[in-house]
Amino acid sequence: MPKGDIYIDRRKHKRAQTKLNVTYKVMANDEFEQRGPEADRKRRVETEDISTSGLQLICDEEIGQDKVVRLDVSLNGTGENIATFAEVKWVRRDDVLRKFRVGLQFLVVKEDHIAAIRKITGE
Fold this sequence. Notes:
The protein is mainly beta. It has one domain (16-29, 39-121): predicted glycosyltransferase like domains (Thrombin, subunit H). The chain is built from 1 helix and 7 strands; from the N terminus they run βββββββα. Strands 2-3-4-7-6-5 form a 6-stranded antiparallel beta barrel. The chain is globular.
């Protein structure tokens, strides 16, 4: 019998597969962190999915795990925008896309933003 890994979905909140426009900026770990001139540039990407607890981005560059990211998420079609902070929980290279998949957990989300996300996820 072939051996394989068992996948257990540990998500607590329903996710919606959707492409939302996001701008993000990786925050410095502290005021003494050495950062190049590109560090303060906001980058534009799309989500792969979103839930009330976090989202997945498709990025051209690798973002370090445990980094804090400032996000501006446009909830297409709802007229809502979410401005918040999130922590990078995982990063994986997608060889097919030649990009990085980045899993982020929201650190702060307002109640009205949660309600807007629930409209998208159907939760």
